[in-house]
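Recall the central idea of this unit: under ordinary conditions, the amino acid sequence of a chain determines the structure it adopts. In this exercise we apply that idea directly, starting from the sequence alone.
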Amino acid sequence: MAELTPLAISVLALLEERPMHAYEMYQLLISRKQDRMVKVRPGSLYHTVERLAGQNYLRATGTERAGNRPERTTYEITPEGSAALTERVETAIETFTYEFPLFPVVLSEAHNLEADDAVLRVRRRIAQIEELLAELDASLEAARQKGVPEVFWIGGSYIRHQLATEREWLTTFTDRIESKDLEWQPRDKK
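Accordingly, the structure predicted from this sequence is:
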């Protein structure tokens, strides 16, 4: 079985709900704010659908046209697609994989900036995180109010806790720079 990308997992999971066409999948991912967890663009979504169809993980069930709109092909998940989705979720939950994000790399090199500049830029990041937290809180509360079972928005809750932890760590980091508790540039630049 080929390893499923995050977008492929999302596509198969949507098709577990019901058959739908790719544009509907895109709209649902955006409306559910899953674009905060999965990089989703219309082109990449259509490519993923085609690739999954080629792997026999989903199949076309029909084509429809509404007015002047382009034809839309509706897809459904196959038993092989359900099995692949289940296997990927099982292995990804139980196995830690380091994903090599950019931020720890640039954070490790932040000492190349002047301390005041680094603090300013980290504070801007903290402000962005606070905006994201407010948006996530509103989305999660809306899901609660609509009666959406928690299991369907647990990923958003996880991201919220990650962001809150990052905000706290970065706040302590900037405090340490400003108080000189953290020696900022231990080597003189030549």
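The mean pLDDT is 92.
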